[in-house]
């Protein structure tokens, strides 16, 4: 296997190893053993245990993010697209935690230990929100926004009960979908507030 | 001391004991010893260790809540009062964690172990928000609201990065006040959206 060893194979097996041993115990040697190669072969792809852990964590985040990134490009007016994007994000995170709580806990711990990974992930998400906000302002469906990035972050923060793993204990509670809808409606009303006012004024 | 032992004295000392021993180790005997009384004297006020812990926890929450409850009654128009209330809540929580992180961790753990205490605390807070929302609707400063309690909860959820202890690690970060202002503005714009529209229409 060593000859054809790819980065993808290592990441795949490393994810299993992390899951089985837990993030504090899993080592590069464990990953190499599971692959049937020497640890030198793994180190040829990843210079350190930390680099391997970071790569596995990024891959895990990236996979969950695929449907969310698609939602950001959905063919919908900006307000509907934003609600769809938020719902897709919530669903993706919720499935991840409810389908496999152990793996979720493992990776949440890995994410927390690497603040660059978190920062990049938040930037990717708020970047998608900012894109939807710009489209909405351009179409006259959202009010003009002074600082799109700050407002995108405010939308992200205002909905964090529905995507931040710190709140995952609430995600299977009765009424959580109603609570999600109420927050989305409040946020969307805030974004359209001025736009609505201008529409009325122009009559 | 036993003759004049009051509930308040017990709660005061129990708080110290919890702080010194940690919530998992502190016992009624420790509290009694610190008071210089028999544990029977403490049990006369609190039927069990659990009851004493709950009373201490409620008292701790109640104390932090005093300035917040005052903010709910501030002599300000509803939108300004809501922003003031949210800022007071954030300040109160933030001071509590930054001034004495150890005590905050102790009590956060105690609060988490008692879901009734959390539910009552959330109900008290959302009740204050609901009161401000009703005043604002009545004054024509907020749009009419179908379900005031659900909207109050949405305001509470949308601002949770700035009051939920799960996010306390963010509270001394650069830019946190700007982030707080951005979320407040978004929420207030959402609440005034329709009201604004009606004001314009009546011109």
From TrEMBL, chains A, B:
Alphabetical list of Pfam families matching this protein: TetR_C_27, TetR_N
Record-annotated DNA-binding residue ranges: 27-46
All copies of domain HTH tetR-type, residue ranges: 4-64
Name of the featured protein: TetR family transcriptional regulator
Keywords for the protein's UniProt record, in alphabetical order: DNA-binding, Transcription, Transcription regulation
InterPro entries: DNA-bd_HTH_TetR-type_CS (IPR023772), Homeodomain-like_sf (IPR009057), HTH-type_TetR-like_transc_reg (IPR050109), HTH_TetR (IPR001647), Tet_transcr_reg_TetR-rel_C_sf (IPR036271), TetR_C_27 (IPR041478)
Keyword Transcription belongs to the record: yes
Organism of origin: Kibdelosporangium philippinense
């Amino acid at each position: 296997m060593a000859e054809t060893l790819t980065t993808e194979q290592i990441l795949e097996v490393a994810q299993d190893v992390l899951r089985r041993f837990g993030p504090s115990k899993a080592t590069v040697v464990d990953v190499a053993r599971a692959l049937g190669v020497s640890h030198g072969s793994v180190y040829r792809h990843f210079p350190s245990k930390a680099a391997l852990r970071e790569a596995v964590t990024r891959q895990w985040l990236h996979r969950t993010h695929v449907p969310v990134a698609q939602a950001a490009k959905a063919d919908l007016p900006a307000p509907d697209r934003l609600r769809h994007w938020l719902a897709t994000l919530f669903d993706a995170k919720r499935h991840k935690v409810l389908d496999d709580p152990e793996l979720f806990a493992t990776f949440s711990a890995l994410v927390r230990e690497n603040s660059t990974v978190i920062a990049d992930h938040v930037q990717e998400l708020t970047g998608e929100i900012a894109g939807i906000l710009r489209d909405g302002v351009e179409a006259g469906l959202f009010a003009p926004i002074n600082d799109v990035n700050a407002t995108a972050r405010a939308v992200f923060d205002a909905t964090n009960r529905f995507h931040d793993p710190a709140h995952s204990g609430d995600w299977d509670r009765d009424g959580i979908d109603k609570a999600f809808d109420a927050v989305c409606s409040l946020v969307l009303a805030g974004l359209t507030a001025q736009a609505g006012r201008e529409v009325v004024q122009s009559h």
